């Protein structure tokens, strides 16, 4: 395809060069008008010559192939973007929970968030695994903050003691 375009551009440039030389060396008058007409026709022929032998089937196949490659590349980028978005949401939620736990006095917390895809087209924190040796009262306070601030229901919070993990 690029070879055909290259050949066409070279042919067009050659026709333009020959036209320029012919117009320069031709004396004024009736002869110049005839040479001008012939040069114009030659330039037009050089311009439309690729249309005569153009392989439309091959062009359509190449175009379809390029569209498929573009779609595949776009899908790969979209998939990577979704994974990155999910990972960012999970990390931000973990950082948020760790910060809230520290403000409550829980300093030995390990947390893992699992994000899920919503039918409306976004990731949301769906589940949390928490490991700490904190007492039940502190855990209940943190559970309340997680449920109200992040929207993770209490039944989706999985608690364990740190020495069990």
Describe the structure.
The chain has 165 residues and is of the alpha+beta class. Helices cover 67% and strands 13% of the residues. The chain has 4 helices and 3 strands, in the order H-H-H-E-E-H-E. The protein has a 3-stranded mixed beta sheet with strand order 1-2-3, with helices on one face. Helix 1 runs antiparallel to helix 2. It is rod-shaped. The model has no long low-confidence stretch (mean pLDDT 86).
Write the layout of secondary structure elements.
Elements: H1 2-25, H2 30-52, H3 56-104, E1 110-117, E2 123-131, H4 136-150, E3 157-160
Parallel strand pairs: 2-3
Antiparallel strand pairs: 1-2
Supply database-style keywords.
165 residues; alpha+beta; 3 strands
Report the mean per-residue pLDDT as an integer: 86
CA-based shape:
rod-shaped
**Main sheet properties:** 3 strands, mixed
Give the N-terminus to C-terminus distance in angstroms. Answer: 62 Å
Summarize the structure.
With 165 residues, this protein is of the alpha+beta class. Helices cover 67% and strands 13% of the residues.
